[in-house]
């Protein structure tokens, strides 16, 4: 149903043009709410207008006061120059960091120093994330050096103990594509995020190698009872200003829309993250507009809107100021880090699905298009096609603008295209030479085909897609159940009472199958949105497909029962009736908690953390550190929070979605959210 669209786009869409846009965007220092971002936005808008689209730059206050839903619009920042150098010992005098040479050399949003700069002694920390590290250490009036979490170090070293500045020399690892010492000469993207009440300071960034040299010098002098003295100067301003989105439209025949979004921000050059996504969006817009103008594609039923935003912040602002338009947004897609040369950067191209609380046909559609785009190589006989690049389809993870669109309180299903992990992510080495025009072309074809298909879909396309959803569900449920059977039989070997274990596992599997069945039904019924007023004519066909989904789920569960029963017979285990499981005290507590969301969209917590006492913030930090792998559970749990489900039900849904259970984390995390005033919790008898 999308084959002709894809074929026409293959003849029009250019990865080279997309890369040319990447090169232009990468020239700008694109920090959110800054003159550099504004210049990049104006460039993009002018180009999109030249392609015949109705494009505009939308402005919002960047004043540290305005909120869009829960998100604070921070002040505009302009940095003109910054320098850090050693002044003592004089024989070691040299420049350590210079903003005009490398925009990554400053912690973004650094506050200005006095006009003449400052001289201060250096105090070296390892990480500086724990209070114990400051015992017996005087950092007041000094510059501290850390490779730990800058936000935490700012809280302890600057706000609590009086340091005046921070030097960061860390480099995050992302094994296996980035291991320690792989990028010892690169600079890590680091930023302050100020909110009212925070004590400001300046900061610089050094490479791990330069940082090691400075640490060694400081250690040597310390043995002599001396300290390194530094000179720091930051010529910058923070002030009430503006933040911008670029919005461009291919007009359709109705007021419904499909949204294509990418974030335009990040330090110069930040080529893959995310000049690549923005450049690809611009080329998708050009190619579709060209084909429509030439009559090769008809004017779509629905409009296609292209948004280039400061990540997260711009999406909050756009949606909150266009709430009346949200119900008309049929679907969206997010492009983030899509241009990697895989041989250099290391990561595969991922199609990331929306969260399962927002189950939709969009995942099935994007996957179907992906299968066509990646069929590029052929065997000698010409009987099989296959991809020549790394790729995967993955469940929701978040971390970009699709996380806001796909929140059920917003209700716009939005998958993401991304390449992850990336060796050069958030570093000064994310440069144009790491960008592959062929990868940009592939992502552009995926995006343009997806957007135009949905924009022009009607009753016939909805019916095809309903069958596609059903077919894919049946394959998924068969694979899932067989995987569960394999796991259960393997784990049964080590059980003291295998019969009881097998019976309990079957009971849990029943819940998992029913959960997946319900998500499949949601995906199926979401296709009616494409049929519009003619959706009623699909009811009979959808009813039959719904029955297929139900029967497939039930048959797979019965097959699991047979497999487990056969295995129990072979090992002489006695299957027991489904056991009754008593609730723990924690489960009983969670069952009585019915959370209600106050804000639309995911909650942006930076500002609200300050509503907690210092002791409470420390307690929350320790909770998140101890349960590091559970953080995504908090995001997914909020998606399932609808004011009716209790927290035990929510935790079960998250467990079905991820296979992970951490009820202790969720109960305590929701209690913190309640204290911050971002949710309400009704406690039932």
Q: Can you describe this structure?
A:
- With 685 residues, the protein is an alpha/beta fold.
- The protein folds into four domains: 286 residues, 3-Layer(aba) Sandwich (Aminopeptidase), CATH 3.40.630.10; 163 residues, Glucose Oxidase, domain 1 (3-Layer(bba) Sandwich), CATH 3.50.30.30; 113 residues, no CATH class; 99 residues, no CATH class.
- The chain has 20 helices and 21 strands.
- An eight-stranded mixed β-sheet has the order 1-11-13-12-14-19-15-18, with helices on both faces.
- The longest helix is centred in the C-terminal third of the chain and has 34 residues.
What topology does this entry show?
Elements: H1 3-12, H2 15-25, H3 35-50, E1 54-62, E2 67-68, E3 71-72, E4 76-88, E5 95-98, E6 118-124, E7 143-146, H4 150-160, E8 165-168, E9 202-205, H5 208-223, E10 229-239, E11 241-250, E12 257-263, H6 271-293, E13 303-309, H7 313-320, E14 329-336, H8 342-345, E15 349-352, H9 361-373, E16 377-378, E17 385-386, E18 391-394, H10 402-405, E19 416-419, H11 437-456, H12 459-492, H13 498-526, H14 528-531, H15 539-571, H16 585-591, E20 593-597, H17 614-626, H18 631-640, H19 647-658, H20 663-676, E21 679-683
Parallel strand pairs: 6-7, 7-8, 8-9, 12-13, 12-14, 14-19, 15-18
Antiparallel strand pairs: 1-11, 2-3, 4-5, 4-10, 6-10, 11-13, 15-19, 16-17, 20-21
Helix pairs in contact: 1-11, 2-6, 2-11, 6-11, 9-11, 9-12, 12-13, 12-15, 13-15, 17-20, 18-19
- How many individual β-strands? 21
> In percent terms, what proportion of residues is strand?
15-25%
Strand order of the largest sheet: 1-11-13-12-14-19-15-18
Poorly predicted ranges (pLDDT <50, ≥5 residues)?
none
Using the coordinates shown, work out and report the CATH topology of the largest domain. Aminopeptidase
Q: Which structural class is indicated by helix and strand composition?
A: alpha/beta
Q: In CATH, what is the class of the largest domain?
A: Alpha Beta
Shape: globular
């Amino acid at each position: 149903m999308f084959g002709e669209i894809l074929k026409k786009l293959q003849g029009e869409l250019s990865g080279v043009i997309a890369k040319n846009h990447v090169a232009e965007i990468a020239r700008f220092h694109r920090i959110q709410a800054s003159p550099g971002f504004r210049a990049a936005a104006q460039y993009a808008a002018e180009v999109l207008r030249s392609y015949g689209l109705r494009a505009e730059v939308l402005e919002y206050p960047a004043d540290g006061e305005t909120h869009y839903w829960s998100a604070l619009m921070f002040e505009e920042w302009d940095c003109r120059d910054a320098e850090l150098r050693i002044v003592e010992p004089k024989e070691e005098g040299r420049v350590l960091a210079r903003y005009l040479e490398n925009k990554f050399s400053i912690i973004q949003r650094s506050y200005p120093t006095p006009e003449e700069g400052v001289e201060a002694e250096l105090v070296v920390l390892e990480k500086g994330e724990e209070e114990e590290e400051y015992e017996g250490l005087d950092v007041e009036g000094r510059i501290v050096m850390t490779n730990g979490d800058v936000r935490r170090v700012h809280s302890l070293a600057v706000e609590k103990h009086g340091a005046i500045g921070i030097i960061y020399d860390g480099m995050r690892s992302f094994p296996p594509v980035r291991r320690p010492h792989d990028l010892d000469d690169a600079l890590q993207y680091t930023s302050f995020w100020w909110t009212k009440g925070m004590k400001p300071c300046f900061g610089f960034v050094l490479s791990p190698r330069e940082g090691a040299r400075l640490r060694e010098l400081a250690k040597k002098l310390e043995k002599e009872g001396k300290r390194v003295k530094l000179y720091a100067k930051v010529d910058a301003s923070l002030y009430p200003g503006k933040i911008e989105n670029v919005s461009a439209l291919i007009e359709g025949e109705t007021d419904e829309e499909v949204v294509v979004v990418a974030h335009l921000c990040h330090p110069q050059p930040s080529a893959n993250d995310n000049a690549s996504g923005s450049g690809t969006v611009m080329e998708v817009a050009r190619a579709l507009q060209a084909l429509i103008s030439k009559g090769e594609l008809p004017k779509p039923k629905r409009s296609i809107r292209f948004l280039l935003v400061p990540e997260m912040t711009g999406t909050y602002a756009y949606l909150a100021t266009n709430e009346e338009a949200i119900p008309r947004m049929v679907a969206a897609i997010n492009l983030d880090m899509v241009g990697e040369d895989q041989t250099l950067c290391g990561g595969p191209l991922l199609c990331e699905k929306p969260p399962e609380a927002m189950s939709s046909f969009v995942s099935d559609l994007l996957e179907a298009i992906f299968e066509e785009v990646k069929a590029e190589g052929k065997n000698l006989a010409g009987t099989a096609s296959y991809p020549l690049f790394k790729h995967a389809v993955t469940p929701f993870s978040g971390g970009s603008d699709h996380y806001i669109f796909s929140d059920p309180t917003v209700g716009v299903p939005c998958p993401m295209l991304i390449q992850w992990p990336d060796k050069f992510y958030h570093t000064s080495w994310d440069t144009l030479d790491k960008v592959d025009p062929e990868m940009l072309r592939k992502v552009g074809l995926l995006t343009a085909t997806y957007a135009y298909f949905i924009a022009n879909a009607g009753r016939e396309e909805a019916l095809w897609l309903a069958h596609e959803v059903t077919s894919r569900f049946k394959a998924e449920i068969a694979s899932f159940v067989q995987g569960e059977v394999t796991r259960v039989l393997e784990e049964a070997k080590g059980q003291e009472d295998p019969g009881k274990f097998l019976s309990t596992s079957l009971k849990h599997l029943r819940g998992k199958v029913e959960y997946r069945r319900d998500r499949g039904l949601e995906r199926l019924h979401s296709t009616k949105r494409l049929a519009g007023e003619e959706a009623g004519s699909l009811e009979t066909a959808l009813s039959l497909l719904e029955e297929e989904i139900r029967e497939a789920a039930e048959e797979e569960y019965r097959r699991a029962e047979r497999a487990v029963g056969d295995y129990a017979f072979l090992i002489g285990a006695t299957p027991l009736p489904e056991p009754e499981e008593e609730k723990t005290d924690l489960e009983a507590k969670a069952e009585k908690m019915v959370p209600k969301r106050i804000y639309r969209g995911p909650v942006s917590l930076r500002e609200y953390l300050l509503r907690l006492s210092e002791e409470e913030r420390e307690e929350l930090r320790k909770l998140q550190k101890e349960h590091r792998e559970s953080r995504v559970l908090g995001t997914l749990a909020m998606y399932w929070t609808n004011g009716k489900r209790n927290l035990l039900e929510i935790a079960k849904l998250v467990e079905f979605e991820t296979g992970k259970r951490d009820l202790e984390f969720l109960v305590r995390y929701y209690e913190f959210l309640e204290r911050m005033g971002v949710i309400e919790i009704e406690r039932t008898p």
